[in-house]
Design a protein that fits this description.
The complex is a heterodimer of chains A (about 120) and B (about 500). Chain A is an alpha/beta fold and about 120 residues long. Chain A has five helices and five strands, in the order E-H-E-H-E-H-E-H-E-H. The longest helix of chain A is centred in the N-terminal third of the chain and has 13 residues. With about 500 residues, chain B is of the alpha+beta class. Chain B is built from 13 helices and twelve strands. In chain B, strands 2-1-5-4-3 form a five-stranded antiparallel sheet. A five-stranded mixed sheet of chain B has the order 7-9-10-12-11, covered by helices on one side. In chain B, strands 6-8 form a two-stranded antiparallel sheet. In chain B, helix 6 packs antiparallel against helix 7 and helix 9 packs antiparallel against helix 12. The longest helix of chain B is centred in the middle third of the chain and has 66 residues. The chains are: A alpha/beta (about 120), B alpha+beta (about 500). Chains A and B meet through helix 1 of A and helix 6, helix 7 and helix 9 of B.
Protein backbone atom coordinates (compact mmCIF):
# COMPACT_ATOMS: atom_id res chain seq x y z
CA UNK A 1 0.00 0.00 0.00
CA UNK A 2 1.34 3.43 -0.93
CA UNK A 3 1.87 5.56 2.14
CA UNK A 4 1.14 9.24 1.72
CA UNK A 5 1.87 12.17 4.02
CA UNK A 6 -0.79 14.83 3.59
CA UNK A 7 0.32 18.22 4.91
CA UNK A 8 -2.70 20.51 5.18
CA UNK A 9 -3.72 22.93 7.91
CA UNK A 10 -7.38 23.25 6.94
CA UNK A 11 -9.32 20.55 8.74
CA UNK A 12 -12.11 20.34 6.16
CA UNK A 13 -9.74 19.91 3.25
CA UNK A 14 -7.57 17.47 5.17
CA UNK A 15 -10.53 15.31 6.13
CA UNK A 16 -12.02 15.41 2.63
CA UNK A 17 -8.77 14.63 0.82
CA UNK A 18 -7.79 11.91 3.27
CA UNK A 19 -11.14 10.18 2.96
CA UNK A 20 -11.09 10.27 -0.82
CA UNK A 21 -7.48 9.03 -1.00
CA UNK A 22 -8.19 6.33 1.56
CA UNK A 23 -11.15 5.27 -0.53
CA UNK A 24 -8.81 4.90 -3.50
CA UNK A 25 -6.56 2.58 -1.47
CA UNK A 26 -3.87 4.90 -0.13
CA UNK A 27 -2.61 4.89 3.42
CA UNK A 28 -2.72 8.52 4.56
CA UNK A 29 -0.94 10.23 7.48
CA UNK A 30 -1.46 13.90 8.35
CA UNK A 31 0.59 16.85 9.36
CA UNK A 32 -0.90 20.30 9.84
CA UNK A 33 2.21 22.49 9.73
CA UNK A 34 5.60 22.57 8.10
CA UNK A 35 7.64 21.61 11.16
CA UNK A 36 5.63 18.50 11.99
CA UNK A 37 5.66 17.61 8.29
CA UNK A 38 9.48 17.54 8.34
CA UNK A 39 9.49 15.42 11.51
CA UNK A 40 6.96 12.95 10.15
CA UNK A 41 8.73 12.70 6.82
CA UNK A 42 12.01 11.89 8.60
CA UNK A 43 10.48 9.36 11.00
CA UNK A 44 7.82 7.74 8.84
CA UNK A 45 9.56 7.95 5.45
CA UNK A 46 6.35 8.08 3.41
CA UNK A 47 6.34 7.17 -0.28
CA UNK A 48 5.10 10.62 -1.25
CA UNK A 49 4.20 13.94 0.35
CA UNK A 50 1.20 16.07 -0.61
CA UNK A 51 2.17 19.55 0.54
CA UNK A 52 -0.15 22.49 0.97
CA UNK A 53 1.84 25.69 0.62
CA UNK A 54 0.28 28.17 3.01
CA UNK A 55 0.93 26.50 6.33
CA UNK A 56 1.36 27.82 9.87
CA UNK A 57 4.73 27.80 11.70
CA UNK A 58 6.73 26.91 8.58
CA UNK A 59 5.19 27.30 5.15
CA UNK A 60 5.14 24.64 2.44
CA UNK A 61 7.94 26.20 0.39
CA UNK A 62 10.38 26.32 3.29
CA UNK A 63 9.34 22.87 4.48
CA UNK A 64 10.00 21.46 0.99
CA UNK A 65 13.36 23.21 0.84
CA UNK A 66 14.32 21.66 4.18
CA UNK A 67 13.17 18.21 3.08
CA UNK A 68 15.06 18.44 -0.19
CA UNK A 69 18.26 19.55 1.52
CA UNK A 70 18.25 16.61 3.93
CA UNK A 71 19.78 13.44 2.38
CA UNK A 72 17.38 11.27 4.43
CA UNK A 73 14.24 12.87 2.99
CA UNK A 74 15.62 14.23 -0.26
CA UNK A 75 14.28 11.38 -2.36
CA UNK A 76 10.69 11.51 -1.13
CA UNK A 77 8.64 13.01 -3.98
CA UNK A 78 6.65 16.14 -3.08
CA UNK A 79 3.51 17.26 -4.87
CA UNK A 80 2.56 20.84 -4.02
CA UNK A 81 -1.13 21.57 -3.60
CA UNK A 82 -1.59 25.12 -4.83
CA UNK A 83 -4.71 27.13 -4.45
CA UNK A 84 -4.71 28.69 -7.85
CA UNK A 85 -3.60 27.27 -11.17
CA UNK A 86 -2.13 30.47 -12.53
CA UNK A 87 -0.76 32.12 -9.44
CA UNK A 88 2.92 32.63 -8.81
CA UNK A 89 2.75 29.99 -6.08
CA UNK A 90 3.40 27.23 -8.59
CA UNK A 91 6.66 28.70 -9.78
CA UNK A 92 7.79 29.19 -6.26
CA UNK A 93 6.77 25.61 -5.45
CA UNK A 94 8.90 24.20 -8.26
CA UNK A 95 11.73 26.52 -7.31
CA UNK A 96 11.53 25.24 -3.74
CA UNK A 97 12.08 21.72 -5.06
CA UNK A 98 8.57 20.28 -5.39
CA UNK A 99 8.47 17.51 -7.99
CA UNK A 100 5.03 18.46 -9.29
CA UNK A 101 2.01 20.48 -8.35
CA UNK A 102 -1.72 20.05 -8.38
CA UNK A 103 -4.36 22.73 -8.25
CA UNK A 104 -6.98 22.82 -5.53
CA UNK A 105 -9.74 21.69 -5.73
CA UNK A 106 -7.93 18.61 -6.88
CA UNK A 107 -8.91 16.58 -9.89
CA UNK A 108 -8.70 13.17 -8.24
CA UNK A 109 -8.01 11.26 -11.44
CA UNK A 110 -5.11 13.52 -12.35
CA UNK A 111 -3.70 13.57 -8.82
CA UNK A 112 -3.68 9.79 -8.64
CA UNK A 113 -1.94 9.67 -12.01
CA UNK A 114 0.77 12.02 -10.76
CA UNK A 115 1.20 10.06 -7.54
CA UNK A 116 1.59 6.83 -9.50
CA UNK A 117 4.18 8.36 -11.83
CA UNK A 118 6.30 9.80 -9.02
CA UNK A 119 6.11 6.78 -6.73
CA UNK A 120 7.16 4.39 -9.50
CA UNK A 121 10.00 6.70 -10.50
CA UNK A 122 13.37 5.09 -9.85
CA UNK A 123 15.01 6.72 -6.82
CA UNK A 124 18.30 8.40 -7.47
CA UNK B 1 14.14 94.44 -43.41
CA UNK B 2 11.77 94.82 -40.49
CA UNK B 3 9.97 91.63 -41.42
CA UNK B 4 13.25 89.75 -41.67
CA UNK B 5 13.97 90.82 -38.09
CA UNK B 6 10.83 89.15 -36.81
CA UNK B 7 12.55 85.83 -36.13
CA UNK B 8 15.88 87.30 -35.08
CA UNK B 9 16.95 86.91 -31.47
CA UNK B 10 16.23 89.59 -28.94
CA UNK B 11 19.92 90.50 -28.92
CA UNK B 12 19.97 90.85 -32.70
CA UNK B 13 16.81 92.94 -32.64
CA UNK B 14 18.17 95.25 -29.99
CA UNK B 15 21.44 95.61 -31.88
CA UNK B 16 19.66 96.29 -35.17
CA UNK B 17 17.32 98.87 -33.65
CA UNK B 18 20.00 100.75 -31.76
CA UNK B 19 22.48 100.66 -34.61
CA UNK B 20 19.95 101.80 -37.19
CA UNK B 21 18.75 104.63 -35.00
CA UNK B 22 22.21 105.88 -34.05
CA UNK B 23 23.65 105.64 -37.57
CA UNK B 24 20.70 107.47 -39.08
CA UNK B 25 20.89 110.14 -36.38
CA UNK B 26 24.63 110.56 -36.94
CA UNK B 27 24.20 110.83 -40.71
CA UNK B 28 21.41 113.39 -40.37
CA UNK B 29 23.46 115.41 -37.89
CA UNK B 30 26.57 115.19 -40.05
CA UNK B 31 24.71 116.29 -43.16
CA UNK B 32 23.07 119.16 -41.29
CA UNK B 33 26.46 120.41 -40.14
CA UNK B 34 27.74 120.04 -43.69
CA UNK B 35 24.85 122.08 -45.04
CA UNK B 36 25.39 124.76 -42.41
CA UNK B 37 29.09 124.86 -43.11
CA UNK B 38 28.42 125.17 -46.83
CA UNK B 39 26.17 128.19 -46.25
CA UNK B 40 28.70 129.80 -43.90
CA UNK B 41 31.48 129.17 -46.32
CA UNK B 42 29.56 130.65 -49.22
CA UNK B 43 28.81 133.80 -47.20
CA UNK B 44 32.49 134.04 -46.33
CA UNK B 45 33.43 133.60 -49.98
CA UNK B 46 31.07 136.39 -51.10
CA UNK B 47 32.49 138.72 -48.45
CA UNK B 48 36.04 137.88 -49.44
CA UNK B 49 35.46 138.44 -53.16
CA UNK B 50 33.56 141.66 -52.51
CA UNK B 51 36.49 142.97 -50.49
CA UNK B 52 38.85 141.87 -53.25
CA UNK B 53 36.68 143.68 -55.84
CA UNK B 54 36.64 146.82 -53.68
CA UNK B 55 40.43 146.62 -53.38
CA UNK B 56 40.83 146.32 -57.14
CA UNK B 57 38.34 149.19 -57.58
CA UNK B 58 40.26 151.42 -55.16
CA UNK B 59 43.52 150.69 -56.93
CA UNK B 60 42.12 151.35 -60.35
CA UNK B 61 40.59 154.83 -59.76
CA UNK B 62 43.68 156.51 -61.23
CA UNK B 63 43.73 154.21 -64.24
CA UNK B 64 40.04 154.88 -64.90
CA UNK B 65 40.41 158.61 -64.39
CA UNK B 66 43.34 158.79 -66.78
CA UNK B 67 42.05 156.16 -69.21
CA UNK B 68 45.22 154.16 -68.60
CA UNK B 69 44.25 150.70 -69.77
CA UNK B 70 47.78 149.28 -69.34
CA UNK B 71 47.93 150.01 -65.65
CA UNK B 72 44.36 148.76 -65.26
CA UNK B 73 45.43 145.41 -66.77
CA UNK B 74 48.48 145.50 -64.46
CA UNK B 75 46.23 145.83 -61.47
CA UNK B 76 43.98 143.00 -62.65
CA UNK B 77 46.93 140.68 -63.34
CA UNK B 78 47.75 140.85 -59.61
CA UNK B 79 44.71 138.59 -59.17
CA UNK B 80 46.89 135.71 -60.38
CA UNK B 81 47.86 135.28 -56.73
CA UNK B 82 44.41 133.79 -56.09
CA UNK B 83 44.06 130.72 -58.32
CA UNK B 84 40.31 130.50 -57.70
CA UNK B 85 39.68 133.80 -59.46
CA UNK B 86 38.85 132.70 -62.99
CA UNK B 87 37.95 135.98 -64.67
CA UNK B 88 37.96 139.67 -63.81
CA UNK B 89 37.18 142.92 -65.61
CA UNK B 90 37.04 146.67 -65.12
CA UNK B 91 34.30 148.68 -66.86
CA UNK B 92 34.19 152.46 -67.36
CA UNK B 93 31.38 154.66 -66.15
CA UNK B 94 29.27 153.84 -69.19
CA UNK B 95 29.70 150.12 -68.56
CA UNK B 96 32.02 149.43 -71.47
CA UNK B 97 34.84 146.95 -70.75
CA UNK B 98 38.03 148.82 -69.93
CA UNK B 99 40.36 146.00 -68.94
CA UNK B 100 39.92 142.19 -68.66
CA UNK B 101 41.70 139.28 -66.96
CA UNK B 102 41.48 135.54 -67.44
CA UNK B 103 43.16 132.98 -65.22
CA UNK B 104 46.35 131.76 -66.88
CA UNK B 105 45.74 128.43 -68.56
CA UNK B 106 42.04 129.13 -69.14
CA UNK B 107 40.97 130.06 -72.69
CA UNK B 108 40.52 133.88 -72.93
CA UNK B 109 36.92 134.95 -72.91
CA UNK B 110 35.07 138.18 -73.08
CA UNK B 111 33.69 139.31 -69.73
CA UNK B 112 29.94 139.67 -69.35
CA UNK B 113 28.33 143.07 -69.67
CA UNK B 114 28.43 145.26 -66.58
CA UNK B 115 25.72 144.84 -64.01
CA UNK B 116 24.66 146.72 -60.90
CA UNK B 117 26.49 146.08 -57.66
CA UNK B 118 25.88 142.59 -56.21
CA UNK B 119 27.01 138.99 -55.89
CA UNK B 120 25.42 135.84 -57.33
CA UNK B 121 26.12 132.14 -57.72
CA UNK B 122 25.61 130.84 -61.21
CA UNK B 123 26.29 127.16 -61.67
CA UNK B 124 29.74 126.51 -60.33
CA UNK B 125 30.73 130.18 -60.35
CA UNK B 126 30.49 133.17 -58.03
CA UNK B 127 30.15 136.52 -59.87
CA UNK B 128 30.71 139.78 -57.98
CA UNK B 129 30.12 143.29 -59.37
CA UNK B 130 31.31 146.32 -57.38
CA UNK B 131 31.13 150.01 -58.30
CA UNK B 132 34.33 152.08 -58.36
CA UNK B 133 33.55 155.35 -56.59
CA UNK B 134 35.65 158.47 -56.57
CA UNK B 135 34.53 161.50 -54.53
CA UNK B 136 31.06 160.05 -54.25
CA UNK B 137 30.65 159.59 -57.99
CA UNK B 138 30.69 156.20 -59.71
CA UNK B 139 33.47 156.12 -62.30
CA UNK B 140 33.39 152.40 -63.23
CA UNK B 141 32.63 148.85 -62.20
CA UNK B 142 34.83 145.90 -61.13
CA UNK B 143 33.81 142.33 -61.95
CA UNK B 144 35.39 139.25 -60.29
CA UNK B 145 34.39 135.68 -61.10
CA UNK B 146 35.56 132.74 -58.91
CA UNK B 147 35.20 129.01 -59.17
CA UNK B 148 33.72 127.04 -56.27
CA UNK B 149 36.38 124.35 -56.09
CA UNK B 150 37.26 125.33 -52.55
CA UNK B 151 33.68 124.75 -51.54
CA UNK B 152 33.57 121.39 -53.35
CA UNK B 153 36.75 120.05 -51.81
CA UNK B 154 35.68 121.34 -48.43
CA UNK B 155 32.38 119.49 -48.79
CA UNK B 156 34.20 116.30 -49.83
CA UNK B 157 36.45 116.50 -46.81
CA UNK B 158 33.42 117.15 -44.66
CA UNK B 159 31.51 114.12 -45.97
CA UNK B 160 34.57 111.93 -45.53
CA UNK B 161 34.83 113.13 -41.97
CA UNK B 162 31.15 112.48 -41.34
CA UNK B 163 31.60 108.95 -42.68
CA UNK B 164 34.60 108.32 -40.46
CA UNK B 165 32.70 109.71 -37.46
CA UNK B 166 29.69 107.51 -38.29
CA UNK B 167 31.83 104.41 -38.58
CA UNK B 168 33.79 105.08 -35.42
CA UNK B 169 30.63 106.05 -33.53
CA UNK B 170 28.84 102.96 -34.79
CA UNK B 171 31.71 100.80 -33.62
CA UNK B 172 31.74 102.46 -30.22
CA UNK B 173 27.93 102.12 -30.05
CA UNK B 174 28.25 98.43 -30.86
CA UNK B 175 30.78 97.96 -28.08
CA UNK B 176 28.60 99.84 -25.63
CA UNK B 177 25.55 97.93 -26.80
CA UNK B 178 27.14 94.56 -26.27
CA UNK B 179 27.76 95.61 -22.67
CA UNK B 180 24.46 97.35 -22.07
CA UNK B 181 21.89 95.34 -24.02
CA UNK B 182 21.94 92.80 -21.19
CA UNK B 183 19.99 95.30 -19.11
CA UNK B 184 16.99 94.59 -21.30
CA UNK B 185 17.69 91.17 -22.73
CA UNK B 186 18.98 89.37 -19.61
CA UNK B 187 15.76 89.54 -17.57
CA UNK B 188 13.72 88.49 -20.60
CA UNK B 189 16.07 85.61 -21.44
CA UNK B 190 15.97 84.64 -17.78
CA UNK B 191 12.17 84.39 -17.84
CA UNK B 192 12.41 82.44 -21.08
CA UNK B 193 14.95 79.99 -19.66
CA UNK B 194 12.86 79.51 -16.56
CA UNK B 195 9.75 78.84 -18.64
CA UNK B 196 11.69 76.36 -20.75
CA UNK B 197 13.08 74.59 -17.71
CA UNK B 198 9.64 74.34 -16.16
CA UNK B 199 8.14 72.85 -19.28
CA UNK B 200 11.03 70.44 -19.74
CA UNK B 201 11.57 69.23 -16.19
CA UNK B 202 8.04 69.79 -14.88
CA UNK B 203 9.72 71.29 -11.85
CA UNK B 204 7.28 73.96 -10.76
CA UNK B 205 9.36 75.07 -7.79
CA UNK B 206 11.87 77.10 -9.86
CA UNK B 207 11.36 80.88 -10.07
CA UNK B 208 12.51 83.51 -12.54
CA UNK B 209 14.91 86.13 -11.16
CA UNK B 210 13.66 89.69 -10.94
CA UNK B 211 16.13 92.43 -11.93
CA UNK B 212 14.10 95.59 -11.35
CA UNK B 213 10.71 97.23 -10.98
CA UNK B 214 10.17 97.86 -14.67
CA UNK B 215 7.72 96.18 -17.07
CA UNK B 216 9.92 93.08 -17.24
CA UNK B 217 9.91 93.01 -13.45
CA UNK B 218 6.11 93.02 -13.57
CA UNK B 219 6.24 90.22 -16.14
CA UNK B 220 8.56 88.22 -13.88
CA UNK B 221 6.21 88.77 -10.94
CA UNK B 222 3.21 87.65 -12.99
CA UNK B 223 5.12 84.66 -14.31
CA UNK B 224 6.28 83.58 -10.85
CA UNK B 225 2.79 84.01 -9.48
CA UNK B 226 1.48 81.83 -12.29
CA UNK B 227 4.13 79.23 -11.39
CA UNK B 228 2.95 79.39 -7.76
CA UNK B 229 -0.55 78.55 -8.91
CA UNK B 230 0.61 75.78 -11.22
CA UNK B 231 2.86 74.40 -8.47
CA UNK B 232 -0.04 74.44 -6.04
CA UNK B 233 -2.35 72.77 -8.56
CA UNK B 234 0.34 70.23 -9.41
CA UNK B 235 0.78 69.43 -5.75
CA UNK B 236 -2.97 68.95 -5.39
CA UNK B 237 -3.12 66.72 -8.45
CA UNK B 238 -0.16 64.69 -7.17
CA UNK B 239 -1.72 64.29 -3.76
CA UNK B 240 -5.04 63.31 -5.30
CA UNK B 241 -3.32 60.86 -7.64
CA UNK B 242 -1.26 59.35 -4.84
CA UNK B 243 -4.37 58.99 -2.74
CA UNK B 244 -6.20 57.38 -5.65
CA UNK B 245 -3.30 55.02 -6.27
CA UNK B 246 -3.08 54.10 -2.61
CA UNK B 247 -6.81 53.50 -2.53
CA UNK B 248 -6.62 51.39 -5.66
CA UNK B 249 -3.73 49.38 -4.23
CA UNK B 250 -5.66 48.90 -1.03
CA UNK B 251 -8.66 47.77 -3.04
CA UNK B 252 -6.52 45.33 -5.01
CA UNK B 253 -4.86 44.02 -1.87
CA UNK B 254 -8.26 43.60 -0.28
CA UNK B 255 -9.54 41.73 -3.32
CA UNK B 256 -6.47 39.52 -3.34
CA UNK B 257 -6.83 38.66 0.35
CA UNK B 258 -10.57 38.29 0.09
CA UNK B 259 -10.47 35.94 -2.85
CA UNK B 260 -7.80 33.89 -1.12
CA UNK B 261 -9.98 33.58 1.96
CA UNK B 262 -12.99 32.67 -0.19
CA UNK B 263 -11.19 29.82 -1.91
CA UNK B 264 -10.49 27.72 1.15
CA UNK B 265 -14.12 27.04 2.12
CA UNK B 266 -15.03 26.78 -1.54
CA UNK B 267 -12.47 24.02 -1.99
CA UNK B 268 -14.21 22.22 0.84
CA UNK B 269 -17.63 22.60 -0.78
CA UNK B 270 -16.40 21.37 -4.14
CA UNK B 271 -14.32 18.57 -2.60
CA UNK B 272 -17.11 17.23 -0.39
CA UNK B 273 -19.59 17.37 -3.27
CA UNK B 274 -17.13 15.36 -5.37
CA UNK B 275 -16.53 12.94 -2.53
CA UNK B 276 -20.25 12.47 -2.03
CA UNK B 277 -20.83 11.78 -5.71
CA UNK B 278 -17.93 9.27 -5.64
CA UNK B 279 -19.42 7.54 -2.60
CA UNK B 280 -23.04 7.79 -3.81
CA UNK B 281 -22.66 4.56 -5.78
CA UNK B 282 -21.32 2.67 -2.76
CA UNK B 283 -24.28 3.79 -0.69
CA UNK B 284 -26.84 3.04 -3.39
CA UNK B 285 -27.84 6.70 -3.77
CA UNK B 286 -27.12 7.34 -7.50
CA UNK B 287 -30.27 9.54 -7.59
CA UNK B 288 -28.47 12.41 -5.80
CA UNK B 289 -25.48 12.40 -8.17
CA UNK B 290 -26.94 14.95 -10.67
CA UNK B 291 -27.61 17.43 -7.85
CA UNK B 292 -24.15 16.89 -6.43
CA UNK B 293 -22.75 17.56 -9.92
CA UNK B 294 -24.66 20.84 -9.96
CA UNK B 295 -23.09 21.84 -6.65
CA UNK B 296 -19.65 21.01 -8.06
CA UNK B 297 -20.26 22.88 -11.30
CA UNK B 298 -21.58 25.99 -9.53
CA UNK B 299 -18.66 25.78 -7.11
CA UNK B 300 -16.11 25.55 -9.92
CA UNK B 301 -17.73 28.49 -11.67
CA UNK B 302 -17.51 30.56 -8.51
CA UNK B 303 -13.88 29.48 -8.11
CA UNK B 304 -13.09 30.55 -11.67
CA UNK B 305 -14.54 33.99 -10.97
CA UNK B 306 -12.60 34.32 -7.75
CA UNK B 307 -9.38 33.25 -9.50
CA UNK B 308 -9.93 35.81 -12.25
CA UNK B 309 -10.54 38.56 -9.71
CA UNK B 310 -7.40 37.51 -7.89
CA UNK B 311 -5.35 37.63 -11.08
CA UNK B 312 -6.71 41.00 -12.03
CA UNK B 313 -6.17 42.49 -8.60
CA UNK B 314 -2.65 41.11 -8.59
CA UNK B 315 -2.01 42.75 -11.94
CA UNK B 316 -3.49 46.00 -10.70
CA UNK B 317 -1.52 45.91 -7.48
CA UNK B 318 1.61 45.44 -9.61
CA UNK B 319 2.22 42.11 -7.93
CA UNK B 320 1.86 39.93 -11.00
CA UNK B 321 5.38 38.98 -11.93
CA UNK B 322 6.56 37.39 -15.10
CA UNK B 323 8.34 34.07 -14.93
CA UNK B 324 10.40 34.01 -18.07
CA UNK B 325 11.56 30.58 -19.15
CA UNK B 326 12.64 28.89 -22.33
CA UNK B 327 10.25 26.23 -23.64
CA UNK B 328 9.15 24.47 -26.80
CA UNK B 329 6.17 26.05 -28.51
CA UNK B 330 4.95 22.63 -29.70
CA UNK B 331 4.57 21.33 -26.12
CA UNK B 332 2.56 24.34 -25.05
CA UNK B 333 0.22 24.03 -28.02
CA UNK B 334 -0.28 20.31 -27.47
CA UNK B 335 -1.07 20.98 -23.85
CA UNK B 336 -3.59 23.76 -24.57
CA UNK B 337 -5.25 21.82 -27.39
CA UNK B 338 -5.71 18.73 -25.25
CA UNK B 339 -7.18 20.64 -22.31
CA UNK B 340 -9.56 22.59 -24.55
CA UNK B 341 -11.00 19.44 -26.21
CA UNK B 342 -13.91 19.01 -23.73
CA UNK B 343 -15.00 22.61 -24.44
CA UNK B 344 -14.71 22.06 -28.20
CA UNK B 345 -16.93 19.00 -27.91
CA UNK B 346 -19.47 20.74 -25.67
CA UNK B 347 -21.03 22.80 -28.50
CA UNK B 348 -20.24 20.18 -31.18
CA UNK B 349 -17.56 22.35 -32.73
CA UNK B 350 -14.48 21.20 -34.59
CA UNK B 351 -11.03 22.53 -33.82
CA UNK B 352 -8.42 22.84 -36.51
CA UNK B 353 -4.84 23.65 -35.55
CA UNK B 354 -2.44 24.87 -38.24
CA UNK B 355 1.24 25.42 -37.60
CA UNK B 356 3.15 27.33 -40.23
CA UNK B 357 6.30 25.62 -41.42
CA UNK B 358 9.07 25.51 -38.90
CA UNK B 359 6.93 26.93 -36.10
CA UNK B 360 6.74 23.59 -34.27
CA UNK B 361 10.44 23.63 -33.42
CA UNK B 362 10.43 27.23 -32.27
CA UNK B 363 11.53 27.87 -28.74
CA UNK B 364 9.99 30.77 -26.89
CA UNK B 365 11.49 32.71 -24.03
CA UNK B 366 8.58 34.16 -22.13
CA UNK B 367 6.08 33.34 -19.38
CA UNK B 368 4.68 30.00 -20.50
CA UNK B 369 1.90 29.86 -17.92
CA UNK B 370 0.55 33.28 -18.80
CA UNK B 371 0.77 32.51 -22.51
CA UNK B 372 -0.99 29.19 -21.94
CA UNK B 373 -3.75 30.89 -19.97
CA UNK B 374 -4.17 33.61 -22.60
CA UNK B 375 -4.38 31.08 -25.43
CA UNK B 376 -6.76 28.94 -23.44
CA UNK B 377 -8.96 31.98 -22.83
CA UNK B 378 -9.09 32.84 -26.54
CA UNK B 379 -9.94 29.25 -27.46
CA UNK B 380 -12.50 28.80 -24.70
CA UNK B 381 -14.24 32.02 -25.77
CA UNK B 382 -14.29 30.86 -29.39
CA UNK B 383 -15.78 27.51 -28.31
CA UNK B 384 -18.28 29.14 -25.98
CA UNK B 385 -19.71 31.49 -28.58
CA UNK B 386 -19.78 29.02 -31.47
CA UNK B 387 -22.21 26.15 -31.88
CA UNK B 388 -21.75 23.37 -34.46
CA UNK B 389 -19.15 25.50 -36.15
CA UNK B 390 -15.44 25.69 -36.67
CA UNK B 391 -12.77 27.01 -34.38
CA UNK B 392 -9.28 27.33 -35.79
CA UNK B 393 -5.93 28.08 -34.25
CA UNK B 394 -3.19 29.21 -36.60
CA UNK B 395 0.35 29.83 -35.45
CA UNK B 396 2.87 31.72 -37.54
CA UNK B 397 6.26 33.31 -36.98
CA UNK B 398 7.10 36.81 -38.19
CA UNK B 399 10.86 37.24 -38.35
CA UNK B 400 12.20 40.71 -37.66
CA UNK B 401 15.59 42.26 -37.00
CA UNK B 402 14.68 43.33 -33.47
CA UNK B 403 13.33 39.88 -32.64
CA UNK B 404 10.81 37.41 -34.02
CA UNK B 405 7.13 37.75 -33.27
CA UNK B 406 4.93 34.72 -32.79
CA UNK B 407 1.35 35.22 -34.00
CA UNK B 408 -1.54 33.10 -32.73
CA UNK B 409 -4.80 33.55 -34.60
CA UNK B 410 -7.99 32.12 -33.14
CA UNK B 411 -10.91 32.29 -35.57
CA UNK B 412 -14.44 31.03 -35.07
CA UNK B 413 -17.69 30.90 -37.00
CA UNK B 414 -19.70 31.92 -33.94
CA UNK B 415 -22.11 34.70 -33.06
CA UNK B 416 -19.56 37.47 -33.65
CA UNK B 417 -19.74 40.99 -32.28
CA UNK B 418 -20.66 44.51 -33.40
CA UNK B 419 -17.99 47.21 -33.39
CA UNK B 420 -19.49 48.59 -30.21
CA UNK B 421 -19.16 45.24 -28.52
CA UNK B 422 -15.59 44.89 -29.75
CA UNK B 423 -14.78 48.26 -28.16
CA UNK B 424 -15.95 47.01 -24.76
CA UNK B 425 -14.45 43.58 -25.10
CA UNK B 426 -11.30 44.15 -23.09
CA UNK B 427 -12.91 46.06 -20.27
CA UNK B 428 -13.00 44.16 -17.02
CA UNK B 429 -16.28 42.44 -16.24
CA UNK B 430 -17.54 43.33 -19.72
CA UNK B 431 -18.68 40.62 -21.98
CA UNK B 432 -19.88 41.80 -25.37
CA UNK B 433 -23.35 41.99 -23.90
CA UNK B 434 -24.18 41.83 -20.21
CA UNK B 435 -26.89 39.30 -21.00
CA UNK B 436 -24.07 37.11 -22.36
CA UNK B 437 -22.88 36.29 -18.85
CA UNK B 438 -26.24 34.79 -18.00
CA UNK B 439 -26.45 32.85 -21.24
CA UNK B 440 -22.86 31.76 -21.74
CA UNK B 441 -21.35 31.92 -18.29
CA UNK B 442 -17.83 33.15 -17.65
CA UNK B 443 -16.63 36.11 -15.69
CA UNK B 444 -15.93 38.54 -18.48
CA UNK B 445 -12.45 38.89 -17.08
CA UNK B 446 -10.64 36.36 -19.24
CA UNK B 447 -9.88 38.58 -22.22
CA UNK B 448 -9.02 41.59 -20.09
CA UNK B 449 -6.57 39.46 -18.10
CA UNK B 450 -5.16 37.81 -21.22
CA UNK B 451 -4.50 41.14 -22.85
CA UNK B 452 -2.84 42.49 -19.71
CA UNK B 453 -0.62 39.41 -19.66
CA UNK B 454 0.31 39.77 -23.33
CA UNK B 455 1.12 43.44 -22.90
CA UNK B 456 3.21 42.60 -19.88
CA UNK B 457 5.17 40.21 -22.09
CA UNK B 458 5.59 42.89 -24.79
CA UNK B 459 2.75 41.70 -27.02
CA UNK B 460 -0.92 42.44 -27.53
CA UNK B 461 -4.28 40.96 -28.45
CA UNK B 462 -6.41 42.46 -31.21
CA UNK B 463 -9.84 41.53 -32.43
CA UNK B 464 -11.83 41.61 -35.66
CA UNK B 465 -15.43 40.53 -35.66
CA UNK B 466 -18.69 40.64 -37.58
CA UNK B 467 -22.01 39.80 -36.00
CA UNK B 468 -23.33 36.48 -37.28
CA UNK B 469 -20.11 35.70 -39.14
CA UNK B 470 -17.56 35.10 -36.41
CA UNK B 471 -14.57 36.58 -34.66
CA UNK B 472 -10.84 36.55 -35.22
CA UNK B 473 -8.64 37.21 -32.22
CA UNK B 474 -4.96 37.70 -32.83
CA UNK B 475 -2.37 37.32 -30.12
CA UNK B 476 1.05 38.67 -31.00
CA UNK B 477 4.00 38.11 -28.76
CA UNK B 478 7.76 38.63 -29.03
CA UNK B 479 9.38 35.19 -29.19
CA UNK B 480 11.72 36.54 -26.54
CA UNK B 481 10.03 38.74 -23.98
CA UNK B 482 11.58 42.17 -24.22
CA UNK B 483 12.62 43.79 -21.00
CA UNK B 484 11.83 47.41 -21.89
CA UNK B 485 8.35 46.45 -23.10
CA UNK B 486 8.00 44.55 -19.91
CA UNK B 487 8.89 47.43 -17.66
CA UNK B 488 6.49 49.64 -19.58
CA UNK B 489 3.62 47.19 -19.34
CA UNK B 490 4.29 46.85 -15.64
CA UNK B 491 4.29 50.56 -14.97
CA UNK B 492 1.09 50.83 -17.02
CA UNK B 493 -0.50 48.10 -15.00
CA UNK B 494 0.33 49.88 -11.76
Amino acid sequence: MTRLLLVEDNELNRDMLARRLHRLGFHVNFASDGVSAIEMAANGSPDLILMDLSLPVLDGWDATRTLKSNPATRDIPVIALTAHAMSDDRHRALEAGCDDYETKPVDMGRLVGKIATLVSRPRT
Amino acid sequence: MISSLRNASLRQKLTAIVMMTSVVALIVAGLSFAMYDRLTFRDGLVKDRTTLADLVGANSTAALTFQDQASAREILSALRANQHVTRAAIYDAKGAPFAAYSRPGDPPSTPPSAEPEGAGFTGSRLAVFRNVVLDGKPIGTVYIESDLEELGSRMNRYIAMVLVVVIVAAFVALLLLSQLQGIISRPILDVMRTAKRVSETKDYSVRARKYGEDEIGTLVDAFNEMLDRVHERDQQVRTARDAAETANRAKSAFLANMSHELRTPLNGIIGYAEMLSEEAGDRGREDVVPDLMRIQSAGRHLLAIINDILDLSKIEAGRMELHIERFQLRRLIDDVVSTIQPLVAQNENTLEVTLARGVGDVELTTDSIKLRQSLWNLLSNACKFTTRGEVSLTIALEPAAEGDTIVFTVADTGIGMTDEHVGRLFQEFMQADSSTTRKYGGTGLGLAISRRYCRQMGGDITVQSRPGVGSILTLRLPATARRPALAMALSEAV
